[in-house]
Amino acid sequence: MVILGIDPAIRTTGYGVIRITDGRMEVLDCGVIRNPVKAPHSECLRRLSGGIRELVKQFQPEAASIEEPFLGRNASTAIILGMARGAIVAALAENAVPCYAYSPKSAKKSAVGNGSAEKEQVAMMMAAQFHIEVGAIPLDATDALALAVCHGQLAMRGAQVRDLLTSPI
User: Fold this and answer.
1) Of 6, 75, 143, 153, which has the maximum CB count within 10 A?
2) Could you please report the per-residue DSSP string of 131-158?
3) Domain limits of the chain?
4) Active-site residue among 22, 26, 54, 67?
5) Count of CB atoms within 10 A of residue 92's CB?
6) Which residues lie across from 24 on neighbouring strands?
7) Under a CB-based contact definition with an 8 Å cutoff, are residues 90 and 124 in contact?
8) CA–CA dist 14, 5 (Å, integer)
9) CA–CA distance, 136 with 46 (Å, rounded to integer)
10) For this structure, is 67 an active site residue?
11) How far apart are CA 51 and CA 161, in angstroms?
């Protein structure tokens, strides 16, 4: 099973792609879809959709996991994040990739054992688990890897925890 984890943002969307084979996970790729600081939001959304389409074409994931939306103090930021998330979910839907949403705490708890872990802690744990250099994991991709691991752990448990899997969005 191949899972694409996505940590959405308008300027730096992190992604992590893992494969599960015989109960073992391996990282296929991780990185960031970057948008220029001065690019209009419409251009950023187009680039996000295109980046997700490219990842789907290259890795053919059977599922995607994305960070649940959150409400911050700044409504404008929440709206922009919602637009980015929408562009990503639409690109996944166009390619029939089911997408599951998890809270940042759930993803970090699955990956590190601590739902309040910092990005650096998640990066160190992912590097150790997957036997890669911590410097090879962009910080914006750490939560995306944790989201992929979160979904992968639940998927590997199968019917025992079927109720814990969120419904596709």
Assistant:
1) 6
2) T--GGGS-HHHHHHHHHHHHHHHHHHHG
3) 2-164
4) 67
5) 25
6) 21
7) no
8) 8
9) 27
10) yes
11) 32
The predicted structure's pLDDT at residue 167: 63
* CATH numeric code, 2-164: 3.30.420.10
140 is catalytic: yes
Given 54, 118, 140, 143, the catalytic residue? 140
pTM for the full predicted model = 0.90
The one-character DSSP state at 56 is H
| 8 A C-beta contact, residue 97 and residue 5 | no
Task: Report CA-CA distances (Å) from 68 to 54, 55, 58, 77, 136.
Answer: 23, 20, 25, 15, 26
DSSP letter assigned to residue 139: H
- The stretch 46-54 carries a mean pLDDT of 98
pLDDT digits (tens, 9 = 90+) for 25-39: 999 999 999 999 999
Q: Which of 109, 113, 136, 135 is nearest to 28 (CA)?
A: 136
Q: Is 42 exposed, middle or buried (0-12, 13-18, 19+ CB in 10 A)?
A: exposed
Residue for token pair 């596709």: 168
Tokens 């073992």 map to which residue?
24
Find where tokens 């209009």 sit: 40
Q: pLDDT for 126-166, tens place per residue? A: 889 888 888 888 888 999 999 999 999 888 876 444 444 55
Q: Kindly report the average pLDDT of the chain as a whole number.
A: 89
